[in-house]
Fold these 3 entries.
Entry 1:
Amino acid sequence: MTVSPVVKAFFDRPTGSLQYVFHDPETMKGAIVDPVWNFYPEAGAVTTECADEILAYVKDQGIEVEWILDTHPHADHFSAAPYLAEKLGAPRAIGEKVRDIQKLWKDKYNLPDDFPTDGSQWDKLFSDGDEFMVGTVPVKVMFSPGHTLGSITYVAGDAAFVHDTLMYPESGTSRADFPGGSSETLWNSIRAILDLPPETRLFVGHDYPAEGEAPKYEATVAEHRARNKHVKDGISKEEFIATRDARDATLKLPARMLAALQVNIRGGRLPEPESDGYSYLKLPIGKFEPR
């Protein structure tokens, strides 16, 4: 019998980001997936309201957090994993292909030779197919690149955290035009996710509802296969690639991307403070075309 963890979603409206806490109701052991460290680019300010909401929830529910899990270095928000790890004493993890992302963006930011690209900013680097337990909930790691070089999915019992591959069925899929992305690779990753048991609950990484509307983030494999507008059964790989590439050509780069990636390849840490005690972010000029 497949174990069914309790899943709680948290939504950061400015970035459209979904964060999750899942836990085993039998043991009350749990994990946090893709927490947001709030960043306000107009002021160069960071705050912890999203992460503090998660902290309040796990305390109120009596959840013992065993892992803080990143699916990939996000392009639209900073990861709050280090902050939560400090508060909760839980290890942080990501997929081992993060090293390829670090190498790619080290070049984009012209970081010094001694910038580590070995993933040592995390406590654990998962390989494809790795398995671990959260209480009595078995968690399997699936590599699912395409949105980025190193994206992974966590399949926890009958719940799968599919990050920026799929969106809610009526919204389709996520973009594949970032450096290292590939619509063909994304298709292959999504089809592997859609080969999970039909009752598997898929939890997506983003939604962009109108003001006042709630985000939509959960649908089963069967629901995606029946009605996801980009990848439902009957749509071919070639059709998907054409649709995804055409859509991506119209999209602007995320407003926080050039700030977020240089923090997230550091595992969610700011650059080392300079002589005045403040950290500074670099902005590469001319490396990206305007959209």
Entry 2:
Amino acid sequence: MIDWLRREQADPSVEIAGQAIPLAIRRHARATRMTMRLAPDGNEVRITMPRWGRTAEAIAFAHGKRDWLESQLRAMPARTPPVPAGAIAYRGERLTIDWESHHPRRPIITGGQLQIGGPVQSLESRLRRWLCQEALTLMQADLAHYCDLAGKPCPDLRLSRAQRRWGSCGPDGTIRMNWRLVQAPDHVRRSVVAHEVAHLVHFDHSPAFHALLGQLFEGDIAAANGWLKAHGRTLYATFS
């Protein structure tokens, strides 16, 4: 019994709809209670708890909420790969895929449509590469803007294929951004970039960090966070 408990606490998970979903348990200095949510791609259950909380309590909390977690998993959008006459999300808009073999291989946006040619068999991979390049161009401009406001040199930017994080700021200052944010509205993408730039000054989530973020970001942080909470899972529905 003791050995089983030790294994469970070392590699915690909860069974949902017949599959074991890992638990990511994080302690936060400002947390006053335990909160839980399903990762955007459904591959992880995230629990945030006060620093004094016990791992066993978090595990028990997740097991006690299995019905709710299962309902959240069922509500996740089904994967819909991009196909001719289908659609993809780009900067908060839905673009209809206008594929014809004679169209240019490089995508062109025109009148709510995305014209693209080339082999239909490689359509998904080519659209993903295009979105990644668009993401890099937009995010580099965002990064330069917010670093200028923060009075910080522009660090290296890397695109991330992370399944669990929208952005991160490494100890060396390198910022990684989830490329899928190019599918979200501009203010949502920019809010995440601003968040990571604020971490270049305050490597925590202290009041000073939030005050700086409020100064850097021109929009409504709560609204941007709310969009990600409500719609973030949809950004994983088209591309694997």
Entry 3:
Amino acid sequence: MDKKKFRQKYNLFVVEGNKNIRELHQSQYKIKEIFSIEPKNIDFLGVLPYQITEKELRNISFLQNPKDSLAICEILQPKEIAESDTQIILDGIQDPGNLGTIIRLADWFGISQIICSEDTVDYYNPKVIQATMGSFTRTEIFYTDLEIFLQTSKNQNIGTDMDGESIYKFNFPRNINIILGNEGNGIRPKIEKLLQDKITIPRFGNQKSTESLNVSMAGGIILGQLFSKK
């Protein structure tokens, strides 16, 4: 299930670790099977876990250091996008850890959905699911043609750019699409043309310090500033 084509073929994905698996209990996701080295620690979900050894868990896990349990779950059927006042838009994010962290941020700030370009890393990638620490159960992820979506969105399109206005001076609109670009290339030119405004996180440290912020770190700082003004 580490390959997208197999997840799509069988309509299944993997959730690892008792904490993540427990988050499934009150979600829409249906658990098919659970494999655990300590079934008694995860036996309250209405699914009888299979007892396995630590060696067997290592053999089926996608983690370097699996701890306790692994669940096989059904992928949800995609829904139609219904816009909300505050949306995170991801243009070509490729790192599973970044997507997982951004999902956690959305959950923390109460943002119900994230809209992704069609080439953004797959939401059901095991590394993405692991990085969300359970937040994937409370955040909806959509994949679509961003150019078409942003042209028709009722929200204002605000994107990150080194030459943008400082987030500490920017007057955030009430209805907003916060657009974060690819780790190496930023927002694509065709998407950049659809922005109403550009924002940046000013550097206060030495100019010889880190070249740029990780996209998930930048997203967290922007969301913190946005919600400080709400």
